[in-house]
Amino acid sequence: MNIKHNDEIKKKAEERFKELLPLVKVIIERDFKPCKLDKHLETILYDLSYKAIEKNWTGWKIIIYGVFYADELARSLAEKYDKGLCHYLDMALKNAWIERYVLALSK
What we know:
The chain is an all-alpha fold. The protein has one domain (about 1-105). The chain is built from 6 helices and no strands. The protein has helices at about 1-25, 25-30, 40-55, 60-80, 85-95, 95-105. Helix 1 (about 1-25) crosses helix 3 and helix 4 crosses helix 6. The longest helix has 22 residues, at about 1-25. It is elongated.
């Protein structure tokens, strides 16, 4: 029974991920892909989609906001400290800025 439940969650998470991806495509293509961080971001988005289904979050906009937050913070820091955007996007993914933002707001 537990395996079926996990399969159902996985199927719903994949559906949500497919809905989510086009909504953040511009940011992925514009910022993450040139830095070769697009696949890493997609993995994070899938994991958060799975968690959203598993925890029964009512909406997934929070995940999109997390991507916007990380992207804007990385842009701001890159401009402020005159370092490359890729440096801060990589930092955002490695230090779980998106996940922390989402989990903090989902409580």
